[in-house]
Structures are given as structure tokens and as C-alpha cells.
Amino acid sequence: MADGAKSRRLPRAVRERQMLDAAVRSFARHGYQTASMDEIAELAGVSKPLVYLYLNSKEELFTACIRREAGALLAAVAAGVGDGGLPPDERLWAGLLAFFTYAAEHPDSWVVLSRQARTQGEPFATEASRMREGIAAYVAGLIGEAARAAHGAGTITERDVTALAQALVGSAESLATWANETPGVTAKEAASTLMNFAWAGLGNLMKSERWSPR
After folding, report:
1. Taking Cα atoms as reference points, which of 123, 122, 102 lies closest to residue 173?
2. What digits encode the pLDDT tens for the residues 119-175?
3. Contact yes or no for 130/70 (Cβ under 8 A)
4. SS3 for 109?
5. Whole-prediction pTM value?
6. Are the C-beta atoms of 139 and 95 separated by less than 8 Å?
7. In this structure, are residues 67 and 110 in contact, taking their beta carbons and an 8 Å threshold?
8. Which of 21, 26, 53, 56 is nearest to 38 (CA)?
9. For the chain, how big is the Rg over CA atoms in Å?
10. Which residues 6+ apart lie within 8 Å of 5 measured at CB?
11. How many whole angstroms separate alpha carbon 207 and alpha carbon 170?
12. Nearest to 138, CA basis, from 197, 195, 55, 81
């Protein structure tokens, strides 16, 4: 009885974290449509009415999951990139490594962000897009810094930078999913593959060596 009373006295933030942890696990394994609020409540160790009391509906619960997981991923990338103490190429590498490490260490979170959020329509797709644009903004900044550091201003246009950032983030997302589903592929290996691919291309572009069809 004392244990039950102690459990009921858990702070709201702790209860919500338990519910979101359980929901991320269930949404990742079953998908948004199939995931059961009964199962989520059971995994969280609470009653289903309590889940509804805290988070109102399945839609709001899923939205809360996307926002929390996206925030955690963005924070990991930002921490990896750092505050500017390293050269641009090393900061880009650190950001990519942080991205792939997060996806590898939080596979359920990555499934929710990369698959479930984007395939269930609105408002979920918009939440996923905000995450993607946040990461692309970091990458664009680093590409621009690298270009200026290597060859001065004006070597590549702002449009080039934005396009390259979008391409790099899209590649990172696909590669992270593949790496998580392929036994033996480490986060460092995936990050290294993309870094080498991107940096070789960026180097040529910054030297104005553009490929064009004949």
C-alpha cells in the first residue's frame, strides 16, 4: 500500500516522461494507427484515464512524442556542432556523428521521426519538417563557413548552400535508417561515409569545379 501511495505521488513531469517513453516505443513498433492507448498505459505503468487526463487524446500524445524526440535530436546535433571553436569541416563531422549516434542509440525515436511522423499527414508531418529544417539550418551554416574559410566570400551562392544542406540532410536521414536496419554498421561508419561523400563534392564545388551533363 505504501508503494502504491509513493507511486501516485510521482511528480507530473516524471509521469509524463514515463507516458511519452511508452508511447514512443509503442508508436515505433506498431505505427500510429495501430498503437493502442491501453498498451501505452500498461507500458507506462499507469491507467488509461490518466494518460487521457495528462495528454487529452492519441493525436496530442503522438504530437508530444514527435516534439520531444525532435527536440532531443536537434539538441544532440547542436551539442555536436559546438560553438565555433573547431574548423568548419570538423564541426560538420561532429554534427554528423552526433546525428547518427542519436539515431543508433534511440532507434524507436528515429522510427517515430523518420517514418511515422511523415506518413500520418497533418499535423504530424509539419512537426517532422520543423526538425528537418532545424538540422538543415545547422548544416547550411557550416557549409557557408567552410566555403568562406577555404576560398573567401562569393565562392558559392546562398542558393547553392541551401540546396547542398537539404541534399546532405536527406542523405543523412536515409543513411541513418539503413544503418539502423543493417547489422554491424556503426554510427561512426555511417557518419564517415557521408562525410567523405559530402566533403569531396564540396571541395570540388568550392574550387568552381562543377559537373555538368554533356
Report:
1. 102
2. 888 888 898 898 899 889 988 888 888 777 766 655 678 888 898 899 999 999 999
3. yes
4. helix
5. 0.85
6. yes
7. no
8. 26
9. 21
10. none
11. 24
12. 81
